[in-house]
């Protein structure tokens, strides 16, 4: 897995390569409990962040824990703020899986967790999408988007995740 950190539509810092099944993403310079942790404030020290982004990042605290367990990836919200997540494999009405380009945004409350990715379902979605032709190119089902504090999409003021002040893009490696 690798993680990219974004502030609105600007990518911040290098891609963070994760070599373990578990990684923590922290907001500030909270003392690291393991060497498998990404601290957003250290990444963003290289650029000028907006006041809104700084406020949100300061509230993240213990942040999120992302764990791969077999063919599933789980997100645990250890922060004091809501986290918003979308991926092609999150639950949706059964007849809606044919439209993998339209993903739903889920809110994960502080102290809660959510299965954010299912490799078995992703393989199934890849088979479906490979049989269809798309004018705007292929969809990569191995991405998970995570926004801290601010939601996006049809039910929110921000229509695109690139309008969110503080967010992550997780790229999960397809099984080999």
From TrEMBL:
Sequence ranges assigned to domain MH2 in this UniProt record: 1-176
Annotated transmembrane regions: none
Superkingdom of the organism of origin: Eukaryota
Gene Ontology BP, a term: cell differentiation
InterPro entries for this protein: Dwarfin, SMAD-like_dom_sf, SMAD_dom_Dwarfin-type, SMAD_FHA_dom_sf
Name of a matching Pfam family: MH2
Keyword entries, A-Z: Transcription, Transcription regulation
Keyword Cytoplasm appears in the UniProt entry: no
Entry keyword annotation includes Ubl conjugation: no
Annotated GO CC locations: heteromeric SMAD protein complex
GO molecular function: I-SMAD binding; transcription regulator inhibitor activity
Protein name according to UniProt: Mothers against decapentaplegic homolog 6-like
